[in-house]
């Protein structure tokens, strides 16, 4: 298996640095090919702006989606963006490792998504019609690949529980896992989350490595989060709302995960559509 680790932490001597090194060694020992995009070491440019589009006329207002579409189609993207896209094409599994800062990923990693997910690569693909609204949410250019988050938090696990003050960790990670990974087609594995990192003693560190190692050993056959695919019968199109007969009485992000009781509630449309998309709101 080809594995890409996209890593975002500024200090290589940190807990995250140790986990990164462990992950690379464990995967390579198991026979996997591994590449690492260490964003801080690469001095990754986090801000998407006119510098990303060399052909853009500086006197014209910048429309990021349009500029991204033209640059991707013409092969005029910056070298750093094109290199990361090539790594994604190569990878069978992508692991995104980062500390949770202010309830999300660090800005440098968000900037990686902003710049690497170009129009025509990360979004803006597929037919738009009365029954199919683009190849996204389970379809897209990254379909057939797996992705997993490795996330550290300073708070206790209880702080991120169902009744925890920070909110459930699955809800906090939903915009990343569903909106940034499942959207372009990744099968998203359950996250590996390490809590209370400020008081990690040797015993818990060893236990964490053991648990992470078990997760890494199982990545090839771990069942992904059962997110509902957009174009397979669960959603009304073009409203893109979940059909009323599915998950009645429930609300929130959990609606967008399939449940056994929903089996057979609606017919699944398995047609594959590959015509170019008309538009997308991602870089609006």
Return the average pLDDT rounded to an integer: 90
End-to-end Cα distance, whole Å, is 35 Å
Largest sheet: 6 strands, parallel
CATH class: Alpha Beta
Tell me the strand percentage band: 5-15%
Domain unit count: 1
Derived structural class: alpha/beta
- In DSSP terms, counting alpha (H) and pi (I) runs of 4 or more, how many helices? 7
Q: What is the helix content? A: 25-40%
What is the strand tally? Answer: 8
Shape: globular
Could you tell me the radius of gyration in angstroms? 20 Å
CATH architecture annotation: 3-Layer(aba) Sandwich
CATH superfamily (homologous) name: Flavodoxin domain
- The H/E string reads EHEHHEHEHEEHHEE
Structure, described:
This is NAD(P)H dehydrogenase. Residues 262-284 are annotated as: Disordered. Keywords: Oxidoreductase. Belongs to the NAD(P)H dehydrogenase (quinone) family. GO terms for molecular function: NAD(P)H dehydrogenase (quinone) activity. The two termini are 35 Å apart. The protein has helices at residues 15-29, 64-74, 79-90, 107-116, 169-182, 202-217, 230-234; strands at 2-7, 33-38, 93-99, 146-152, 187-188, 192-194, 235-236, 241-242. It is built from seven helices and eight strands. It has one domain: Rossmann fold (3-Layer(aba) Sandwich). Strands 1, 2, 3, 4, 5 and 6 form a six-stranded parallel β-sheet that branches. With 284 residues, the chain is α/β, with parallel strands linked by helices. Helix 1 packs parallel to helix 6.
